[in-house]
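Researcher: Sequence recovery benchmark, item below. Answer with residues only.
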């Protein structure tokens, strides 16, 4: 099967079964903004609180767009844009919900803050296409490791 690049897809975690969680998150943001408005007695502090909380859960509330091209892999959402060049990828960890492309050859404490996490959608054929693209585009020295860990130890991105 020939793989066409760039490979682009989107994942929206709040859609489907996540709607109740999204509504709860929005309610918490609104309550925190209202509390800030009354306690700090100003519209500006409430706006800042709402912005910070929305930015912190934006990957859940809004769609995240992923792209794999011949030069880079990227993840883009409302408030963040992560990109990694294939020449910088030293390891790829295949997880249940996605692939972590890391600039570190070994696991590091900086791992959660570096690299790009490419989240799979519920489409299993997309999962296979993403893994195939990574295997095709990665530098030869990249370690690809399948990582399935207990629920309590899962890497979240």
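Model:
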């Amino acid at each position: 099967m020939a793989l066409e690049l760039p490979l682009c897809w989107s994942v929206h975690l709040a859609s489907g079964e996540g709607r109740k969680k999204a509504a709860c998150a929005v309610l918490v943001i609104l309550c925190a903004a209202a509390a800030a408005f009354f306690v700090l007695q100003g519209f500006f502090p409430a706006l800042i609180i709402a912005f910070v909380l929305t930015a912190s859960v934006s990957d859940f509330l809004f769609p995240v767009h992923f792209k794999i091209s011949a030069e880079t892999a990227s993840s883009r959402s409302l408030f963040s844009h992560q990109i990694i060049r294939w020449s910088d990828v030293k390891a790829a960890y295949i997880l249940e919900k996605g692939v972590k492309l890391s600039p570190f050859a070994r696991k590091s404490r900086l791992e959660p803050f570096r690299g790009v996490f490419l989240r799979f959608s519920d489409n299993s054929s997309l999962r296979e296409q993403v893994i195939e693209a990574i295997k095709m585009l990665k530098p030869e020295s990249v370690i690809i490791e399948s990582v399935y860990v207990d629920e309590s130890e899962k890497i979240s991105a």
